[in-house]
Design a protein that fits this description.
The complex is a heterodimer. By secondary structure, chain A is mainly alpha-helical. Chain A has a single domain, classed as Cytochrome c-like domain (Cytochrome Bc1 Complex, Chain D, domain 2). Chain A is built from nine helices and four strands, in the order ααααββαααββαα. The N terminus of chain A is likely disordered. By secondary structure, chain B is mainly alpha-helical. In chain B, 63% of the residues lie in helices and 2% in strands. Chain B has a two-stranded antiparallel ribbon. In chain B, strands 3-4 form a two-stranded antiparallel ribbon. The longest helix of chain B has 32 residues. Chain B is globular. The two termini of chain B are 35 Å apart. Classes of the chains: A mainly alpha, B mainly alpha. At the A-B interface, α1, α2 and α9 of A face α4, α5, α10, α13 and α14 of B. The complex binds protoporphyrin IX containing FE. Protoporphyrin IX containing FE binds next to α3, α5, α6 and α9 of chain B. The site of protoporphyrin IX containing FE (HEM) has 27 residues of chain B, from α3, α5, α6 and α9.
């Protein structure tokens, strides 16, 4: 193996460095190539829940719930959320006076405004009753078929975990709701479809312009659900499109991860403990190994 | 080591009584207290202990999850979300288990590369190495089936893609596929048996780990110098020396683990798996978890499906054969000036394969670079980059290992571990 050895150490290092540099550029290249939709962004004021120590803004969650209830709930279910969740720690209507959310009067009041199906125990007929705090949010449609029939064939997805089910999370929801635009000339939009540059899709087959510049985004069956002034906020916040979208996105973020605040707080304590424990163990390690190295 | 006499002295009356009936305390003492370990072990040697912690964490969190999980196509997805919402600290248990799998693989890859670099697979540790390979294979099977359980879109379609590979085996593939899926498609029967097997396999792994550690204690640990223990001067007792060092490493590892669990619990997962499984809608881009991407890349590198399956299993099989592929007389690559560069390239290639596994095969590697069609794809595509890496992967084991071992002129190897430690000490002092 003389020939390989005479090549020398430096040459090998150089070769390895070249391979490494090449693989780095490859990585960068594909990041550019990926994704036909615009990158999701936060509202200007940001989300209070983002960041290592971020928490939910309760007033915002309450407004977001209102937007969901008055607008989105007409089409979207949230099957994993029960009324009691609204009154749990870090939730929109949490009240430290009522540790048990089922006793929270606001939550009880909200639940009582809904009707849910049940069976009459005497006759076996399907009837409705007033919802209780333990009931899940009622769904707008009886089944996916009914949902599709009312929405031009597309089923509005359940929103319980939507922020975890899409890249970009709450930012994506915000960008989608505020991002609707008139389609650029040359883009054919089918009946009942709506152009949105943030919705992931491939528009090349509907595009008659320059094939190198296919517009970003895609088309979806949801018409722009929000417009300025649609939901009146009880706390006087201006009802702009952006404000409504930000609030409902924050509410959906909470619904997807109701334990996120507890999780982060626990995390800080765990890391602090591990750091302390590390210091102790490392000191013992130095003591034990003294003179042995 | 086998020739190391037991120094355990039972102290209390009970210990004496037990020792003459079942010397279990003696076994533990000889294995984890008095056991002589090479004194030059570096931090790469702490990953065995880290892996033991990983296995324990997966088993404990897994058993708790199984108490609340429902293996049914209609309820599985929601039962996982229920765990995170309604079970006390269920979010913690689930996120630890999900991220724990990633941490487990992270650790096992380092553990295996450590073995590769320092020649820990060479005589007399061939059986020890093969047991490790069996553990690794079982880990892949366990992780794959575990990922199916939440019954999200990736769970379902990943299971379809991977089980269908079996169907590509000529003649017998079809019947085996039906038998494996428990029907003609991935459905309730598949989910139920995957749950059963996902519960079983970690205990099989635990059994093989016991054999692995038994084999380790017969052959003795290898070490960075790659020379065997010659005298008592070469060793230190497991406790406190190795225990405290492993302890330091385990805490650092748990720190990293916690950063993921508490601050970015879904960063290593795929958003599509939070969409309930829907057989009628296929995700645009089906990818396995990151730790299986290199093997997925090798699978897709071969134009023929069955050929891909053979290459994928072959890429694991060559690791088993490693002890007989390496012809070098020297264990540690510290003293193998040529081989070690091929090792560095090998590590980069493995990372590269992982990267390629996450890309669409037809996508351009360097966007806009003019290219031409070679055989069945553009040269400037992930397909061909993957093929290049795949070729190196196999060439590394099948040609470079045997050939370089014969041709290379190793550097002088220290006569003993003590000498190696002394040399390093002097070098540090300058
Ligand atoms: C569940 C997974 C595994 C566990 C819990 C585990 C555990 C351990 C432990 C505790 C040691 C002793 C400490 C050390 O040297 O790091 C060890 C050594 C070893 N393991 Fe593993 N192991 C696992 C998987 C593997 C795999 C997948 C391989 C390779 C294919 C492997 C190969 C080895 C070898 C060669 C040694 C001897 C190391 C030496 O002394 O040089 N192990 N293992």
């Amino acid at each position: 193996m003389k020939s390989l050895q005479t090549l020398g150490r430096k040459a090998w290092i150089k070769a390895a460095a070249t391979v490494m540099a090449a693989s780095l550029t490859l990585g960068a290249g594909s990041a550019l190539a990926a994704g036909g939709a615009l990158h999701a962004h936060e509202p200007k004021e940001g989300f209070s829940s983002s960041g290592v120590l971020g928490t939910y803004d309760q007033a915002q969650l309450q407004r977001g719930y209102k937007v969901y209830r008055e607008v989105c709930a007409a089409c979207h279910s949230m099957k994993l959320i029960s009324f009691r969740n609204l009154g749990e720690k870090d939730g929109p209507f949490y009240d430290p006076k009522y540790k048990n959310p089922n006793e929270n009067p606001v939550v009880k009041q909200i639940a009582s405004e809904f009707e849910v199906p049940t069976i009459d125990s005497e006759t076996g007929d399907v009837i409705t009753r007033k919802a209780t705090t333990s009931d899940a949010f009622p769904s707008p449609f009886a089944n996916p078929e009914a949902a599709a029939a009312s929405n031009g064939g597309a089923v509005p997805p359940d929103l319980s975990v939507i922020t975890k089910a899409r890249h970009g999370g709450a930012s994506y929801v915000y960008s989608l709701l505020t991002g609707y635009k008139a389609p650029p000339a040359g883009l054919k939009i089918a009946e009942g479809q709506h152009y949105n540059p943030y919705f992931p899709g491939d528009l090349s087959s509907a595009w008659s312009g320059d094939h190198k510049h296919v517009p970003a985004g895609g088309v979806l069956a949801m018409a722009p659900p929000l417009s300025a002034g649609q939901v009146t906020f009880d706390d006087g916040r201006e009802s702009t499109l952006s404000n409504q979208a930000a609030d409902v996105a924050a509410f959906l973020e909470w619904a997807g991860e109701p334990k996120a605040v507890l999780r982060k707080k626990t995390g800080v304590a765990v890391l602090a403990y591990l750091l302390l424990f590390f210091g102790l163990t490392y000191a013992s390690y130095r003591m034990v190994w003294r003179g042995k190295h | 080591m086998s020739d190391h006499p037991s120094t355990y002295v039972p102290k209390t009356g009970f210990e004496k009584w037990l020792d003459s009936r079942l010397p279990i305390v003696r076994l533990a003492y000889d294995s984890f207290v008095d056991y002589p370990t090479p004194k030059n072990l570096n931090y790469w040697w702490t990953f065995g202990g880290i892996l033991s912690v990983c296995l324990a964490i997966q088993i404990i969190t897994g058993i708790i999850l199984a108490m609340h999980y429902t293996p049914h196509v209609d309820y599985a997805f929601n039962s996982v979300e229920r765990i995170m919402r309604d079970v006390n600290y269920g979010w913690l248990i689930r996120y630890v288990h999900a991220n724990g799998a990633s941490m487990f693989f992270f650790a096992v890859y380092i553990h295996m590369l450590r073995g590769l670099y320092y020649g820990s697979y060479k005589a007399p540790r061939e059986v020890l190495w093969i047991l490790g390979c069996i553990i690794f294979f079982l880990m892949i099977a366990t992780a794959f089936m575990g990922y199916v359980l939440p019954w999200g879109q990736m769970s379902f379609h990943g299971a379809v893609v991977i089980t269908n590979l079996i169907g590509s085996i000529p003649l017998i593939g079809g019947p085996i596929l039906t038998w494996l899926q428990g029907g003609f498609a991935v459905d309730q029967a598949t989910l139920n048996r995957f749950f059963s097997l996902h519960y079983l396999l970690p205990f099989v792994i635990a059994g093989v780990v016991i054999l692995h550690i038994w084999a380790l204690h017969v052959a003795g640990q290898n070490n960075p110098a790659g020379v065997e223990i010659k005298s008592k001067e070469d060793t230190v007792a497991f406790t406190p020396y190795a225990t405290v060092k492993d302890g330091v490493a385990i805490i650092v590892f748990l720190f990293l683990f916690s950063v993921f669990v508490f601050f970015m619990p879904n960063a290593l997962g795929h958003a599509d798996n939070y969409i309930p499984a829907n057989p009628l809608v296929t995700p645009a881009h089906i990818v396995p978890e990151w730790y299986l991407l290199p093997f997925y890349a090798i699978l897709r590198a071969i134009p023929d499906k069955f050929g891909g399956v053979i290459a994928m299993f072959g890429s694991i099989a060559v690791i088993f054969a490693l002890p007989w592929l390496d012809t070098s007389k020297v264990k540690s690559m510290r003293y193998r000036p040529v081989m070690r560069w091929f090792f560095v390239i090998f590590v980069i290639v493995c990372l590269g394969l992982g990267w390629c596994g996450a890309q669409l095969p037809d996508a351009q590697v360097i966007p806009g670079l003019p290219s031409f069609t070679l055989f069945d794809g553009q040269l400037n595509s992930y397909l061909w980059l993957t093929r290049l890496f795949t070729i190196y992967y196999f060439v590394f084991f099948l040609l470079i290992m045997p050939w370089i071992g014969l041709k290379e002129e190793p550097l002088p190897v220290p006569a003993s571990i003590s000498e190696a430690v002394l040399a390093e000490h002097n070098k540090k002092k300058g």
